[in-house]
Amino acid sequence: MIFGFLLYLLPNLAMAELRVGFYNSTCPRAEAIIREVVQNRFKADRSITAAFLHMHFHDCFVRGCDASILIDSTPNKQSEKSAGPTLTVRGFEIIDEAKKALEAACPSTVSCADIITVATRDSVSLAGGPTYDIPTGRRDGLVSTPSDVNLPGPSFTVPQALQAFKSKGFTLTEMVVLLGGHTVGVAHCRSFQNRLSNFQGTGLPDPSMDSALVSQLNKTCGSGTGGVDPTAFLDQGTSFIVDNQFYSQVLRKRGILQIDQELGLDKSSTGIVSKLAADNAEFQRSFARAMVKMGNVQVLTGNAGEIRKNCRVFNNQRQ
């Protein structure tokens, strides 16, 4: 499914600088190079879609979509990568591979921030999700500190999560749609363990979770040994496909994370969940629009920031 998006959907501050085909004259094969890297990785590991959605969200929700999440910590200075919520983000080596190929073709031209956004778009499409045009022209940020990482947590209520999303310019409907990215996600047991046996100090499982799922997850989480924290798919049905089945799971009390299940319980969001569960085409259209908007959160353009040569290091710190 291919959806076109007019630039009037972009935040006003980004309109003048971001555009579809930004690299057409300076690096014509930029998006094709990124796509080739993502396709090759996807063939070997379909879970990279979840990895990129995770990375993209963490990047854009901290300092805007500026690739600050890619900076490595050093002995003298910690980066966003050292913050607790970021420790489960993965896929950095795929960004490195794409950047290396782009630097060979068009040195100092394509930003790491654009690589994240384009790679995420391509991985979504490969996983059965929508194919959509994404404006490019982002620049890379010059700051990456762990103290800036303040993200909505897995046990948030809908009002708490909405406050975080509203701060980035998203509506309730857009938040519910973006959380639909959990259709290909996984979560470590520590993120939902409290729902399985002692929910809110009751000594019992969360009553909003299907009892069969509780039993299944207890087995999964009990399998961890040697300090390993097992994971569970957030969509127990079509775990590697970007579709609307996540919402159907939520309506059947099979949401894994508390925030996911809350979407189906809160009066403000349950109708949105039901609508998306009933119409995959509507979910696909809405998800594409929301992802385009996500990619334009607090972007740097023009002469702001820089174009990193190495996505893991600020240019002024390169040896």
TrEMBL record:
Disulfide bonds join C27-C106, C60-C65, C112-C311, C189-C221. GO terms for molecular function: heme binding; lactoperoxidase activity; metal ion binding. Ca(2+) 2 binds at T183, D235, T238, D243. Ca(2+) 1 binds at D59, V62, G64, D66, S68, E80. One of its GO terms (biological process) is hydrogen peroxide catabolic process. Residues 17-315 form the Plant heme peroxidase family profile domain. Heme b binds at H182. Its EC number is 1.11.1.7. It catalyses: 2 a phenolic donor + H2O2 = 2 a phenolic radical donor + 2 H2O. The active site is at H58. It is an enzyme of class 1 (oxidoreductase). SUPFAM superfamilies: Heme-dependent peroxidases. CDD domains: secretory_peroxidase. The keyword Cytoplasm does not apply. It comes from the Eukaryota. It is found in: Secreted. Keywords: Calcium, Disulfide bond, Heme, Hydrogen peroxide, Iron, Metal-binding, Oxidoreductase, Peroxidase, Secreted, Signal. InterPro entries: Haem_peroxidase (IPR002016), Haem_peroxidase_sf (IPR010255), Peroxidase_pln (IPR000823), Peroxidases_heam-ligand_BS (IPR019793), Secretory_peroxidase (IPR033905). The keyword Heme applies. Substrate binds at P152. One of its GO terms (cellular component) is extracellular region. Residues 1-16 form the signal peptide. Binds 2 calcium ions per subunit. Binds 1 heme b (iron(II)-protoporphyrin IX) group per subunit. Removal of H(2)O(2), oxidation of toxic reductants, biosynthesis and degradation of lignin, suberization, auxin catabolism, response to environmental stresses such as wounding, pathogen attack and oxidative stress. These functions might be dependent on each isozyme/isoform in each plant tissue. Belongs to the peroxidase family. Classical plant (class III) peroxidase subfamily. Belongs to the peroxidase family. Ascorbate peroxidase subfamily. This is Peroxidase.
